[in-house]
Amino acid sequence: MADRLQKLLPALDWIRPYDRPTAIADLTAGTITAILLVPQAMAYAQLAGLPPEVGLYSSILPILLYAFFGTSRTLAVGPVAVAALMVASALEPVAMPGSIDYIAGAIFLAVASGLILFLMGLARLGIVATLLSHPVMSGFTSAAAIVIAASQFKHILGLQLPSGLRLDELTIAIISHAGDVNVVTLLFGLMGIGLLVFFRQYLSNILIKRGLSKETASILSRLGPLLLVMSLTGLSAFYQVADSAGVAIVGTIPEGLPDLTMPNVGLAADLLVPALLIALVGFVESVAVAKALAAKRREKIDVNQELIGLGLANMGAGFTAGAPVSGGFARSVVNFEAGAKTQAAAIITALIIVLTVLAFTPLFYHLPQAVLSAIIVVSVLTLVDFGVLKRCWSYDKADAAAWLITFAMVLATGVELGILAGIAISIALFLWRTSRPHTAIVGRVRDTEHFRNVLRHDVETAAHLVAIRVDESLYFANAAHLERTVLDKVADNPALTDVLLICSAINAIDGSALETLEALHEELHGAGVTLSLAEVKGPVMDRLERTDFINHLGRMNIYLSAHDAFAEIVDARKTDLDYYI
């Protein structure tokens, strides 16, 4: 019973042995992460076309739910840039940004994506984390980061431009409105970008040279976004730039906790597919971050439980007037490096956000929107990674092509069609690679029981036997290729009397492949050639035992090892051996 309860509530794994040193580490990390999250949450809400308070609401209950039901001890859940962009892409065609209907759409996306993840978790579908290959996901996030950064230029320049423009349309619009740039707004945006880059790349080294410890310097550099927001908000308030220079500011942020909200199910027809894509991308991104951090501490991640934890977090966001959430890369790394030991650090973060929405939202009234855009730009540009393309190009041109196609599709058509193209490319690559399984003609290494490829090693073979190792599971897409390979070998060698399939790499044989094997056996039998199998794995053999194929083939033609088959078919018959160099 205790084990089952712990499986349902993974937090028990760290709650039971919790001690004072761990609490101190979590308190420090949770506070630092909250300092980073407050401005980021408001910035990502702006990116999604939502009021800033929605970002804060999305950083309370979702964090608490994941803390108890997720399996990563350091993943920082909350608003993220890619999800915010996908929300904006889904909602801009159906409602005006910031409107009641727009907010209702964000709530529906959060609840629907959360429910999808939760149901997938119950169905143990964590395998979908592999649906998007790494090159495809990298191409998607790199292009999305460029789109996100470009979308913020209008705020940094102080231009009133329509939402939802493609990258080319946005570029043309900015150029055509160059004369309308608000110089004061641009100054705030440039100061924001410059200071954030300074805090991120240079401040820590400067502080270390001044005698501070590496840990202290790192913590102080993490305070950069909050210090930026405080200083530029103060500057904006002092000079009243909203009135004197027309600088767009955040304005009034409602105080207090959000009310319980319910999704409008009438939006399902328009938003169910975007919700599915948001769920998929958020899950893949979160699991990748969680696994990377867990590996550093030799911890375990249960991907099926992650589906449940992230699903509950998103549903919690929707029911408290929030938007879709996932695990953020930058925040999770900050949380990890700040010393977080458990998800208690996330609970501290959520409590600080609660305090913020209860008491401190008036302090953000004069915050220029250009500063939030600066935070977004500096944050997302770290996601652009052309190094993956370079590595793929040198190792696997197909993966490089997948990266390029996904990248180009996102830039040209938007995130939804881009990610759908990425999924299609991932599936197509899988089918292409497995539809032509690698097969090797093998022979016995002299004076051993080992068998190797005749093209790579000095082995012995028999004139009347061809031994073929199949290096792939057999299914509908590749069974015909194996059949052609075997029949071609038989047609090219009239002396053949035996064909041996070495099945050591075959993990599964589906119904279509079984029918192909039956047909192959009949064709070979009609040509006077015996088909034999060797090294069939237990689970595969168990399924074959439930069919008539074993009886048709003959149990005497199924061997435990390739060596046993060779000894029976070749050595026992005293056949002369041919030698391949």
Written account of the structure:
By secondary structure, the protein is an alpha/beta fold. It has 2 domains: 21-173 and 254-359 and 385-429, no CATH class; 439-580, 2-Layer Sandwich (Transcription Regulator spoIIAA), CATH 3.30.750. Helix content is 62%, strand content 7%. It has 27 helices and 10 strands. Helix 3 (20-47) packs across helix 18 and helix 8 packs parallel to helix 21. 47% of the residues are buried.
SSE layout and pairing:
Elements: H1 2-8, H2 12-15, H3 20-47, H4 52-57, H5 61-69, E1 77-78, H6 81-91, H7 100-122, H8 134-151, H9 153-157, H10 167-176, H11 183-209, H12 214-222, H13 224-239, H14 241-244, H15 268-296, H16 303-319, E2 326-327, H17 329-337, H18 344-360, H19 369-380, H20 387-395, H21 397-413, H22 415-435, E3 439-445, E4 451-453, E5 459-462, E6 465-470, H23 479-492, E7 498-502, H24 511-526, E8 530-534, H25 538-544, H26 549-553, E9 558-559, H27 562-569, E10 577-580
Parallel strand pairs: 6-7, 7-8, 8-9
Antiparallel strand pairs: 1-2, 3-4, 3-5, 3-6, 5-10
Helix pairs in contact: 3-13, 3-17, 3-18, 3-19, 5-16, 5-18, 6-15, 7-15, 7-16, 8-19, 8-21, 8-22, 11-12, 11-13, 11-19, 15-17, 20-21, 21-22, 23-24
Count of beta strands = 10
Termini separation: 62 Å
Strand content: 5-15%
Could you report the average pLDDT, rounded to the nearest whole number? 90
Model regions low in confidence, pLDDT < 50 over at least 5 residues: 575-581
What structural class should be given to the helix and strand makeup? Answer: alpha/beta
Number of helical regions? 27
Radius of gyration: 30 Å
Tell me the domain tally.
Answer: 2
- Principal-axes geometry comes out as elongated
